[in-house]
Amino acid sequence: MAVEHFDVLIIGAGISGIGAGRYLKTELPGKTFAILEARGASGGTWDLFRYPGTRSDSDLHTFGYAFKPWRDKEAIASAPRILAYLRETVTENGLEPHIRYHHRVRAAAFDSQTALWTVSVDRAGDPVTLTANWVFCAGGYYRYEQGFTPEFPGRSRFRGTIVHPQHWPEDLDHAGKRVVVVGSGATAVTIVPAMADTAAHVTMLQRTPTYILSMPTRDAIGNALKKYLGPARGHALTRRKNIAMQRSIWRFCQRHPERARRVIRWLNARHLPEGYPVDEHFRPPYNPWDQRLCLVPDGDLFKAIRAGTASVVTDRIETFTEDGIRLGSGEELPADIIVTATGLHVQALGGVPLTVDGAPVNVADTIAYKGMMLSGVPNFAFIVGYTNSSWTLKVGLLCEHFCLLLAHMDKHGYELCRPEPADPDMPTRPFLDFGAGYIRRVIDQLPRQGDRLPWLTSMNYHTDVKILRADHVVDPELHFGKAGSRSSLTSATRADRLLGRG
Q: Fewer CB within 10 Å, N side or C side of the chain?
């Protein structure tokens, strides 16, 4: 039986994979590609998570695609609406025939002699082998199979229900129940007000506070721009406005952390009851944007606290008991349901093991090139979005640059492309300079970044516009060549000089 071959295999049919498919089909219509999706549905995160209130924590004018205007009046959107938007993108761009559901990638091996990846796939329990010129990993950054839950003493004693947001039971009824949500990140601040509507009471139990900002669900300026200028032009201007706003807030927090602390505290105090202990529950020990800020649409978390249907407790867990949680202070929180909103299991490259010419790739030993390729690994690209603004802003730029790269290779007849630092002793640091616990737990398993471009991992949209959209793909540290030995690889600059072309 012949092995099916593609120019590009995209791993993952979530927001990144759908975007990659659209750019390939639009910019390089002659390329063959397939999108391999381990689950039975597209949409990634937005199809997986089913906990109450699941929504975006970025505005959809920037979290959505540049090529597809966000038409809803609500800029902070629920998961079902985001999922509908993604599936509209699939339909409008004819991507459905390219998606292979229940295709879980088990391994990928590159052979320099043939300049091909051989990809081992589990297709609904049956092993399948595919080949491709390029592998494009768009599978996200966390394990879909299991969320992260620390070991809690006494967990087995608890007589109620314990759930993790990543595995929310469809039949869980919390009406009239006492609920404790363990955690203080984006998931926790979403779940608490959503459950507080019908629960007897919801307590957000946190070990450390998180910076939280209220944001209007509707973008009044954006809606006005779309109304008077039309969806496409209004969306583009709103997107530019919000990109600038996100960047300004981040820069202010980085340059003036103490002033940012005071501003955030003042805003929080305005939304909370008079005399509320703001510093105890909403003043983290770290600076703003050392970890991601949590957004609450229209201050829904603060409204629930004011209404008395929700509360915040800052303490450590000593043990679970039969009827709740006993804290380090000695206080016991009664609970019928405990939600462990304690984070994700981050994994590099979707957990897919890579080999190059028979040698296993240790991802932690590689350096990220332009935040999209790995040193020493040919014909392989991946997507990691921004941590300090909307994830999808970087998806579009990376996909555009990837298409430019493939077009350049076609023009010059190259079959191999591999980044390699000119200075093997270049100082490196962690790929993501981010203080979140889910990143710190696996930082030694992720690629590294260098101390200069193109080996820096940029988290600045405007910098990336220059690097990924405006710049040519030619770079002395990006080597091209024909199928054969690794020694045939040369930098595009040298090759073009020898061939007398640019």
A: N
Domain residue limits, the chain: 4-144+346-499, 155-340
Q: Residue 380 carries which side chain, given as an amino acid letter?
A: F
**Alpha carbons 459 and 274: distance in angstroms, whole number:** 38
E strands, 75-125, in order: 99-101, 103-111, 116-123
Closest by CA to 340, choosing from 179, 198, 142, 209, is 179
SS3 per residue for 20-87? HHHHHHHHCCCCCEEEEECCCCCCCHHHHCCCCCCECCCCHHHHCCCCCCCCCCECCCEHHHHHHHHH
By the 8 A CB rule, do 44 and 14 touch?
Answer: yes
Report strand pairing: 368-369 vs 310-314. unpaired
For the whole model, what pTM was predicted? 0.91
Equal fold, 4-144+346-499 vs 155-340: yes
| Cβ-contact 350, 12 below 8 angstroms | yes
pLDDT in tens, 65-113: 999 999 999 999 999 999 999 999 999 999 999 999 999 999 999 999 9
323-337 tens-digit pLDDT = 999 999 999 999 999
Phi and psi at 387, nearest 5°, equal -100, -15
Give the CA radius of gyration of the chain. Answer: 24
pLDDT digits (tens, 9 = 90+) for 404-454: 999 999 999 999 999 999 998 898 888 776 656 556 666 677 888 898 889
At 262 the three-state DSSP class reads: helix
Question: Cα separations (Å) of 28 from 201, 348, 359, 399, 469?
Answer: 54, 28, 32, 11, 16
* Furthest C-alpha separation in the chain: 77
**Angstrom distance (rounded) from CA 402 to CA 216:** 35
Q: How many CA atoms lie within 13 A of 311 on its CB side?
A: 12
Residues 6+ apart with CB under 8 A from 420: 375, 376, 477, 479
Q: Is residue 211 very low, low, confident or very high in pLDDT (cuts 50, 70, 90)?
A: very high
Cis peptide before 165 (omega within 30 of 0): no
Amino acid present at 349: L
CATH class of 155-340: alpha beta
Listed in sequence order, the DSSP H helices in 208-272 are 220-229, 231-255, 257-271
Class of the CATH domain delimited by 4-144+346-499: alpha beta
Q: Tokens in use for 469?
A: 């959209």
How far, in Å, CA of 119 to CA of 129, rounded? Answer: 6
